[in-house]
Amino acid sequence: MGPPHVQEVLAVTTTPQAVRRASPRPRPPADERLPGATPAPAADPSAGLLPAAEPVRLLDPTGTPLPAREDYPEPPVEALRELYRRMVIGRRFDTQATALTKQGKLAVYPSSRGQEACQVGGVLAVRDDDWVFPTYRESMALTARGIDPVEVLTLLRGDWHCGYDPAQRRTAPQCTPLATQCVHAAGLAYGEAYQGRDTVALAFIGDGATSEGDFHEGVNFAAVFKAPVVYFVQNNKYAISVPLSRQTAAPSLAYKGVGYGVPSEQVDGNDPVAVLAVLNRAVAHARAGHGPFLVEAHTYRMEAHTNADDATRYRDADEVEAWRDRDPVARLETYLRARGVLDDAAVAAIAEEAEAYAADLRERMHDKPAVDPLSLFDHVYAEPTPQLVEQREQVRAELAADSDSEGER
Questions:
Q1: How many angstroms separate the CA atoms of 116 and 281, rounded?
Q2: Which DSSP state fits 138?
Q3: Of 127, 167, 272, 273, which residue is the least packed, with the fewest Cβ within 10 Å?
């Protein structure tokens, strides 16, 4: 502290009043100091945040490569070949799951046919120890991540929980409520970063989810706390039957990021090469500690919203046919054939692998799961209410009566 006289001086000169008197007057801006000087242009607060005016595209719809881009370098050819393989298997899985629904093996199934580039590109852009937060439509993405397809479909069979271990698979349960995963992804990503780990969270979102409050809360939280999360919006043009034009007047959904200070990009979601290139950059941005990134992929679901939906009520056949010509699987196959890394034998081998995958799923889904109807009443309340107890006993009595009837036959 020093001698007593020094302490007395410090006590006087460090009072708030003394500090205010001693503080130098801030220098005025340059345009005030120099008469006639041209004011310095204000910095653009949106610089580095806005997406490209047009979706990023590296292949045209026929599979022909477009000029290379320095900002989005093409992924290694080995990664693109694996992307193709998993897309083919994913499409066959999707077709098989749709058939299982028609056979009564699934309660409901939301197809992602047509969105293969997004489904598979998303999981290939992250590491196995990163976290994925899916929606109800990401069954294909989860199988591409290596999760057993029967476990993926467990929830859609009518079970009350998902069939895989979220902690082990680093994959959150599929969620039906829109956009709730946006908040969960932000929180987990922030927690991982707080503990010094370089984990990235990838949150899949549909275009309809961007109209929900949880989307805005999640993105805002992630931006403020620089949580390493990538929000991946698959804009398939309809929130069930509501077209995009009735959801937003923004130039594209990617522009929603600028309002939160989040860099964003839009990409042709049916261009597998561009999807993976853009997501690679977004994931690298988040992993480097720069905070969240928002990616919007322009794509299209070829099937109805789910097997319970009649898509002909809100879109016509011509629209669907136009998108069929932009098939992401055919697009990538054409490109890889031209590169000389895919031939007839390789295509046939991958198709055979996909058929074996579907056959195994079909066989294992024939086994009916053992279910206890009374489990419907478990975990509803910590302490069952009188009404719940009464309902449970009614079901118990009905089951007993059915059992007695079976025994009498």
A1: 20
A2: T
A3: 167
Active-site residues: which are they?
Answer: 301, 305, 314
Under-70 pLDDT residues of the chain:
1-41, 407-409
Predicted pLDDT of residue 403: 79
Residue 339 three-state SS: helix
pTM of the model: 0.85
pLDDT attached to residue 175: 86
Query: Mapping DSSP to helix (H, G, I), strand (E, B) and coil, where does residue 100 land?
Result: helix
pLDDT given at position 402: 84
Q: Are 102 and 307 in contact (CB under 8 A)?
A: yes
CB contact at 8 A, 58 and 273 = yes
- Residue 112 · residue 139 · CB < 8 Å: yes
Q: Are 228 and 285 in contact (CB under 8 A)?
A: no
Question: How far is it, in rounded angstroms, from Cα 3 to Cα 267?
Answer: 69
The residue type found at 408 is: E
* DSSP helix/strand/coil, 134: coil
Cα(133)–Cα(183) distance, integer angstroms: 10
DSSP 45-98: TTTTTSPPSS-B-SB-TTSPBPPP-SSSPPPPHHHHHHHHHHHHHHHHHHHHHH
Q: Cα separation of 90 and 110, whole Å?
A: 14
Per-residue pLDDT tens digits for 285-330 = 999 999 999 999 999 999 999 999 999 999 999 999 999 999 999 9
Residues 6+ apart with CB under 8 A from 84: 272, 329, 332, 333, 336, 342, 350
Alpha helical stretches, state H, 176-271? 180-194, 213-224
Residue 37 has what pLDDT?
A: 58
Dist CA 56 CA 31 (whole Å): 41
The one-letter amino acid code at 26 reads P
Structure-token pair, residue 247: 């959801």
